From TrEMBL:
This is DUF4359 domain-containing protein. Residues 24-51 form a coiled coil. Residues 1-21 form the signal peptide. Keywords: Coiled coil, Signal.
């Protein structure tokens, strides 16, 4: 009876160890896939913002670097162990300081455009434009 129990325990241990290693590999694969997808979305967002600004090549490069550093800093802020409202306040303060450096290259409207794109406020602007177009067509 004791040998059956020990054999059963050994078998369960081996099965659980195999399942755990497969799960760990799956987690690693999912994490890499998620990171790749996030990087693709970031690059697409940066290119869309730059296309919308309609600036020169030098300004495009500077804006691109600025947006990439923005993503890095925002990621660091989200890693802090703070309540959500404090994180949001930190991000708002950071946006104001971070994009003020672009005042020498870009207009304030362009900087506001970048910030709105990064926040996701562009959806509101698109809805307003659609409404205006409908009214003009009538």
């Amino acid at each position: 009876m004791r040998s059956k129990n020990s054999m059963l325990m050994a078998l369960l241990f081996l099965i659980s160890f195999q399942v755990f290693s497969q799960t760990e590999a799956q987690i690693k694969y999912d994490k890499e896939r998620f990171e790749n997808r996030a990087n693709e979305l970031k690059e697409q967002l940066v290119s869309d913002i730059i296309k919308g600004l309609k600036v020169g090549e030098f300004e495009e490069h500077i804006v691109s670097l600025s947006i990439h550093s923005y993503f890095e800093e925002v990621t660091k802020i989200y890693m802090f162990d703070l309540p959500a409202f404090e994180k949001q306040d930190l991000i708002t303060q950071f946006e104001i300081k971070h994009f003020n450096d672009l005042n020498t290259i870009l207009d304030q409207e362009q900087i506001d455009y970048i910030i709105n794109q990064l926040r996701g406020d562009w959806k509101k602007d698109q809805k307003k434009k659609k409404r205006k177009k409908k009214k003009k067509n009538k």
